[in-house]
Amino acid sequence: MKALFQKLLNLILPPRCLYCGKIVCQPDALCEDCFNKIEFISAPYCHICGAPFENEKDANISRVCADCAAHKKITRLNRSAAVYDDFFKSGLHRFKFHDQIFFSKIYAKWLKMSGEDIFKEGIDLIVPVPLSYQRLLKRRYNQSALLAKELSKIVSIPADLNCLKKVKNTKPQSSLSEKQRLKNLKNAFEVRNEKSVQDKRIVLVDDVMTTGATLFECAKVLIKAGAKSVDTLTVARTKKS
What percentage of the chain has pLDDT greater than the value 90? Predict the structure, then answer.
């Protein structure tokens, strides 16, 4: 009955591309033109941080980028679905700032695909990066929590949407240098209930990874609270310069 109702609804109000509005075959999808404009991240990329290699030569030398080889990361694996360029940004900003929360369904599907090796390693809990109370009040929803909730449905792994709390209303990270970002986030997060994360393999979910400062700070408090491991999944990431 539900499937029949959906078919009838599609005839009356045909589904449209989330990016450009063209009619598409199914809800929560992109048209072929828009899909092809997205630069999805695929091999070769760094086995640890997930950053795409600029050329095959770099990938043949090592499966690990120079930064990961030189510095031990607190997280186990980091994966992102696509490159954060101007085209991708147009959709993500509508999801994040303009109440178009229907993007969460397709983005969650992309998170599952990009995090395939993370889920193979084993995950017990999905945790979103939190917003401060002030920012949540202004925006009315946490886009990362919406992603975590949808991803939980797809992979059948529980999500704790209130596991982490942001206790400091920090400045927007986009306006700061890498050094300032680290200082800005110091002591900004805490785990609400340490027992809920002890010995758990956790995947942290967020919308975008730039320097990774927010994700790594969240990972630190989770590990300190007793988490067994922390991986990260983001819808998009900026390319390393």
Answer: 66
